[in-house]
Amino acid sequence: MSWLSSLKSVFSPSQEVKEDEIQTVLEGYLLPDSNNALKDRISQVNVEGRVLQITINTYPDEADQLQKIHDDLADALEKCGIQELNMHVIQQKHVHGENRATHDHGKAGHSCSSKPQAETIVHQTVKLPPVVDASGQTTQAEIKKPQDEDPNNPPIQKPAPQQRDVPKHPRIQNVILVSSGKGGVGKSTTTVNLALALQKLGLKVGVLDADIYGPSIPTMLGNAGRTPMIEAENFVPIDAYGMAVLSIGHLTGDNNTPVAWRGPKATGALMQLFNQTLWPDLDVLMIDMPPGTGDIQLTLAQRIPVTGAVIVTTPQNVALMDAIKGIELFNKVQIPVMGVVENMSTHICSNCGHEEQVFGTGGGDKLSEQYQIPLLGRLPLNVQIRENADAGKPSVIAGDDAAESYIAIAQKIADQLSKAEKPQNRIF
After folding, report:
1. Where does 276-402 have alpha helices with state H?
2. What is the rounded CA–CA span in Å between residue 222 and residue 217?
3. Between the N and C ends of the chain, which has fewer C-beta atoms within 10 Å?
4. Angle CA(317)–CA(321)–CA(323) in degrees, nearest 5?
5. CA 378, CA 269: separation in Å to the nearest integer?
């Protein structure tokens, strides 16, 4: 794995660091008194909080430049959110570039192994992980033997958290994600109606709006403009039709304020809404997900205990393509997909009664068959659904033509929850 891939893999979405700018600094820095790029010498990068640890290869004639390299990088990286730079140097025994032939004592044509004959490890500040090949292709000569490793400098191993390792919320029994992979397919409308339908079935339900950049839950539940109370440095969720609800939209003050945040700040806000909210005892917390498969989705997978995901799509091919990406992501992060909801599956003309499949047919069936997941139900393209959601009285509350369909889908979800095996207490 290249150092750039390593850099991207270790950044936690919650960190207040600017990874793109860090990458630019590391790629653009030239070693003093030469045209050699630092990026060609980097073999490993690691991040712990706001501390950047970097391993580079140098040569004896560059020893006097190490402090300047460190200071230059530290100054540049401080503007990117890095508070401390620890530089680990692997110093090659031979010299580099045009002087190598002179130091080879005139042995023309002599080919040196890419593995140095000896290494002198120079530590700047702290001990860091061992070197890995920056090209991503390791030759047999470059494989480090166990006896060559420094016992006082063990590798830093910090695997990404797995869903099975995430502790359960003390007051929330089940977390269900409502996701689409694509915007504009009715995901938020489905979220609020399924939450209200599960409540009608006797479950204690809450709703968290994770669509940081486009929160619409406050409007759909009729509490836009309301601000949550603060109690002991925790948010008190807003009540909506008997459900505990919280959205970033409740904190911005109005519907016109954009949330112009980078990924780390947005995901940090989401974790704050989840962890620093006085949720009541809930059977189910429904989370309305943003479109796509980016920072917020990965943060949820690694830091929030998720029972399952519901995929919302339309029969249209472009919507199915994005829904497939969402399913594949959940499979990779070990989150079960509970089923598919096909939205806007058919339209019945309110004047003549003619039925037409505006967005095509069979999309939900294709997903269900391809991934062996249930098709939870189909919902029509119905003006009442839109009008009631815009008015803050979703279909389940308004009792329109779609209400029974939402309740039927919620019943299938509730059945899955009741059949799910409860985790056993384990000693080991």
Report:
1. 295-303, 317-332, 363-371, 383-390, 395-398
2. 8
3. C
4. 110
5. 33
